[in-house]
Amino acid sequence: MPKHRPTNSAPPAEDPATEAAPTLENEWLGLMASGRAALDSELAFQKARAGLVFKLTGKAALWGGLALALLFFVLMALVVGALLGLSGWIGPWGATLVVVLALLLATGGAVMAVLRAVKALGRVFDDEDAA
Prior knowledge:
By secondary structure, this protein is an all-alpha fold.
């Protein structure tokens, strides 16, 4: 056993008069400093998050635009292929008529889907105003 071991393991008693009691002003200043640090940290986080969202949105828009352009070319190849394939059976004018009618039907279906979506969106906002 070491010789320098203290016999009393309790910490020395401090004089309550020498301890600085926290004041309301000190507590308030500490709270304000903590709040300011939390706000600064949250603002930095949201700024970094917004930058990431902006970067990813740009990439998504770029890839989406490329996908739409390629889809356009696919549809053009389909139209040309349909014209070439049908022209042997019903002639070039008949093939053109059939392809145009098919495209008009597809366009009408797409327009009807858009109108249904817009009406549903309008109902959502009408229900929100009534509530």
